[in-house]
Amino acid sequence: MSKQEATREQTASMEDYLEAIANLGEGKKVVRVKQISEMIGVKMPSVTSALKKLSEQELVEHARYGHIKLTPEGDRIARDVIRRHEALTRFFAQALGIDKETAEEDACKIEHVISSLSMERLTKFVEFIEACPLGSANFPGRYEYYLEHGELPLDCSSRNVRKKK
Amino acid sequence: MSKQEATREQTASMEDYLEAIANLGEGKKVVRVKQISEMIGVKMPSVTSALKKLSEQELVEHARYGHIKLTPEGDRIARDVIRRHEALTRFFAQALGIDKETAEEDACKIEHVISSLSMERLTKFVEFIEACPLGSANFPGRYEYYLEHGELPLDCSSRNVRKKK
DNA sequence: TATAATTGTTAGACATGTCTAACAATTATA
DNA sequence: TATAATTGTTAGACATGTCTAACAATTATA
Q1: Position B130 confidence tier, pLDDT thresholds 50, 70, 90
Q2: Residue B105 to residue B107: CA distance in whole angstroms
Q3: Separation between Cα atoms, residue B96 and residue B139, nearest integer Å
Q4: Spacing of B159 CA from C14 C1' in Å
Q5: Among the listed residues B56, A165, B26, the one whose alpha carbon sits nearest the alpha carbon of residue B35
Q6: A121 and B97: CB-CB below 8 Å?
Q7: Minimal Cα distance from A160: which residue of B?
Q8: Nucleic acid strand C within 7 Å of B11 CB
Q9: How far is A121 from A142, CA to CA, in rounded Å?
Q10: What secondary structure does DSSP assign to B20-53, as a single string?
Q11: Of A85-89, A150-154, B2-6, B71-75, which range is least confident?
Q12: How far is the CA of A45 from the C1' of C11 (A)?
């Protein structure tokens, strides 16, 4: 209800292509169809086909057999996907203590489906955890204790509960 | 690497159908094509078509114009989806303080793509938060403070950081 | 610089999952 | 219990995105 998307929504696939092109193009590097296909895990004709579609939407510039480049709008979308990707990876890796590889895999999937509200909150959550790891009564540390021992740390016992207001 | 799926992976769509049938069938209630179509937000022929596919995989029993019922295997898969759905909803609602509706929407999407490792950790995380909300230095409360004021609570300041070991 | 290797494209098949239109079965009600 | 309303199915179109096979362009190298 509150979400009024101004720009055309992209599918998960198209977001993946934009993201890959942005990542491969970092620092003015030339981007090749082959690289994109390897990064995404599809065959080259799939890339050509996607580039055609993205060109029609003016998100990518693509000369036949030639250069591949994001338009400003394509770049904006790609950056947004990458931003989500990074926040999600950090959440899974830092906050939940998941190995980098799995964290990346999950981020790759979730980045395409999560709402902007949840994304925003999750980002703040990670910032909070990272900025305040010990002050917040060593949150990740306690969480790890719980993961390892399967029971709550001592200072979570009920006698401590009524310290609120 | 560690994940060796014994049962055939289902697509997000098929998982949605199984989930809807399980939810609608709670307490022996008769399940209708119409209801499924409304719950998922597709037209009836899409449901008929999905039921055919699921019947072939023996996840659903479906008599033409007649009853719709999950097989034990179909039910197992549906329960699993529902379990993920609920944990995700609780995470977004309880831990991140997101409204129930958005929490549900996000859970509906993410339940189909998250890894079992992340799911397990996230579940434990929610259990931890819910079991230990005040003892853990009022974690959700501090997080809300951060959300509202945009800065860390006082006791996150650097002078408190070296209290680790 | 010919030729071989590599990279990229085109054409068209295929899988998934949706839809509309037309019809069939079932259920409700006059 | 005929008839109308509702629910469900079938047939087939369509959109998305993948693939293989064949060919074309580019680049590397003999």
Answers
A1: confident
A2: 5
A3: 11
A4: 64
A5: B26
A6: yes
A7: B135
A8: yes
A9: 22
A10: HHHHHTGGG----HHHHHHHHT--HHHHHHHHHH
A11: B2-6
A12: 11
> Using CA atoms, how far apart are residues B33 and B43, in angstroms rounded to an integer?
9
Contact between chains at B142 and A164 (C-beta distance less than 8 A)? no
pLDDT digits (tens, 9 = 90+) for A51-106: 999 999 999 999 999 999 999 999 999 999 999 999 999 999 988 889 999 999 99
Which residues in chain A are contacts of B146 at CB distance < 8 A? 124, 128, 132
Question: Amino acid letter at B30?
Answer: V
Residues from chain B that touch A143, judged by Cβ atoms under 8 A, are: 125, 128
Q: Tokens 């540390």 — which residue?
A: A141
- Measured CA angle at A103 (ends A98, A108), to 5 deg: 165
Specify the pTM: 0.83
In the block, tokens 């003016």 appear at A58
Mutate one of B11, B100, B106, B124 to test the A interface: name it (highest A CB count within 10 A). Answer: B106
Question: How far is Cα B16 from Cα B130, in angstroms, rounded to an integer?
Answer: 28
pLDDT at B10 exceeding the cut of 60 = yes
Q: CA of A55 and C1' of C12: distance in angstroms?
A: 22
Span B53-59, average pLDDT: 97
Tell me the C-alpha to C-alpha distance, in Å, between residue B20 and each of A60, B70, B126: 39, 11, 24
Nearest CA in chain A to B135: A156
Predicted confidence at residue B54, as pLDDT, reads 97
Residue whose CA lies closest to nucleotide C19 C1': B43
